[in-house]
Design a protein that fits this description.
mainly alpha, 9 helices, transmembrane helix, membrane, transmembrane
Length: 219
């Protein structure tokens, strides 16, 4: 009986952690979330897209770094007396690095998005090429967040090591891609309640866990 209650408590604790972290992540990204919802309802708007692009380095990147830092603590079994306090501490503590990197990565993502929008429809080869590059860029971004949350490195080393990991560990790249694709697909095709409560935090937790497992094997 007690063992069963212990397992139940463990499951509910993890559900609560993931939900709280995901809600915090969305709240810190609230201006971007509102603008994206506006575009989903009213269609893509150039002015709104530019505002989202400008806000992303200064809102999305620090918030996502904080999310990865929180799930890192869970992976390492580090106690968090308050997820809210931990999230805010990591948000402010890594803000400068996150913003600088966010400017660079947002620029790359913007170039990819524009090229994909205007060129991918021309032929299947271009479509496949842009999808592959987008997938690699996504995994690179995930690796960057994991490394920023886990290591004390300067930005040049973080960028370099994320690049080497993306191309040097193809199995890890495939695993992270599959994890993210499955969660996003399920979230957007039937289980929409996952988006406000679990989608972001689940991707962060599972992809960081895969990264950390590789790291333990590497050392």
């Amino acid at each position: 009986m007690q063992q069963g209650l212990g397992k139940l408590f463990g499951v509910t604790d993890w559900i609560a952690r993931l939900a709280v972290a995901n809600v915090l992540w969305l709240l810190f990204n609230l201006p971007i979330v509102i603008l994206l919802l506006n575009m989903m309802v009213n269609g893509v708007n150039l002015a709104v897209s530019v505002v989202v692009m400008v806000l992303t380095p200064f809102i999305f990147f620090p918030a996502t770094t904080a999310l990865f830092a929180c799930v890192r603590d869970w992976t390492l079994d580090r106690d968090q007396h308050s997820i809210v306090r931990s999230f805010c501490r990591y948000y402010t503590g890594n803000y400068r690095k996150s913003c600088i990197s966010g400017i660079l990565l947002t620029a790359v993502w913007t170039i990819w998005g524009i090229d994909y929008y205007y060129l991918s429809s021309r032929n299947v080869v271009l479509l496949f090429a842009f999808l592959m590059f987008g997938l690699i860029l996504f995994v690179y971004t995930i690796h960057f967040f994991s490394m920023l949350a886990h290591f004390e490195m300067d930005l040049r080393m973080l960028w370099k090591n994320a690049f080497l990991l993306t191309f040097g560990r193809p199995l890890l790249t495939v695993v992270i891609s599959l994890i993210s694709f499955v969660i996003l697909y399920v979230s957007m095709n039937g289980l929409l309640f996952l988006i406000p409560f679990f989608t972001g935090s689940l991707i962060a937790f599972l992809t960081f866990s895969a990264f950390y497992r590789w790291y333990l094997n590497f050392i």
